[in-house]
């Protein structure tokens, strides 16, 4: 009986300790809410390859953070839970577990956006992130994959953004499978094929929107994120067609490999249900056995590397050619590129509703070949958070766009500002209602 009583007393003590710990964590989390005095939150939640990623942000800065765990308390993470010497141990372990569980049970409360930046793409990437922040409603988590020399610059710039408590970010190194890293690095542009490995690196992220650095959001990220709810039971990703007009299409005229649909797909904007991607077994033309995502990439590269022009985008086209039921196709205004207007307007949806996402591929933000695209880029890059959007963004942009009517894209310049005007109006309406 005494032994039984001791066991019961021990169990009761453990229960009390657990309750007290839970209350303490609740108090800490309340402190870190916007306006709670804990500062803006920059949490790194998704472990990548062992020892591979660095937490970005200002964890542990300021008096409010001294003397207790940093946010998630881990600046470097690996799969063996090795914590740096300046990091407290058990509480941080449980805090990470607690927050991971919260993410799993509240997946719709945060939108995950990934980008890969190499070379001279810092400014372009930051401008893209600015465009995502301006109009989005739900919280955002940016997953920024960048060369090591860009990490500090990203952190310095992002620390100055007025997030209003709704944006976190994590900065990762560029990583490829060690046995084939050299081949992946030289495929198409430097680092471009990193996007193929996001489902394997961000293992704890259920869904993700990947975008190229030369993307600009002209309406809330929430709106493209909502397409996840429109996927049927077989669809795992969404992309837009490479072309609307087959007469100017690349794939249907020049491709030496299989491609999706009539004109292929463009991977500059790619919405992914990564849980489904990791689980799926893909049909292919290499073996009668279906292969998972991590198994199919290298065999595809070996088979087609002499026949592909656009690198990882071509591999995605091959993959969805054999698995067309797995792709949801966006209308063209969700990935509007110079090809949609340089030979005359051929995106009817944009003519009716405006451009939702602008994709300035071929470097058009930085030369004089397509001044309409450059005008939008410069307007968002130069906009200061907090300024009046009508007087500081819309009106100057429209004046610049009117100077571009000597080009084909400039002749339809109103499609570049139509949705942007609506997004500004909707943002002010939400603010007036206190949302």
TrEMBL record:
Subcellular location, record wording: Membrane
Coiled coil: none
Catalytic reaction annotation: 3-O-(beta-D-glucosyl)-L-seryl-[EGF-like domain protein] + UDP-alpha-D-xylose = 3-O-[alpha-D-xylosyl-(1->3)-beta-D-glucosyl]-L-seryl-[EGF-like domain protein] + UDP + H(+)
Membrane topology of this protein: Single-pass type II membrane protein
Keyword tags: Glycoprotein, Glycosyltransferase, Membrane, Signal, Signal-anchor, Transferase, Transmembrane, Transmembrane helix
Compositional bias of kind Low complexity: 46-58
InterPro entries assigned: Glyco_trans_8, Glycosyltransferase_8, Nucleotide-diphossugar_trans
Protein name: Glucoside xylosyltransferase 1
Organism: Melospiza melodia
Protein's gene: Gxylt1
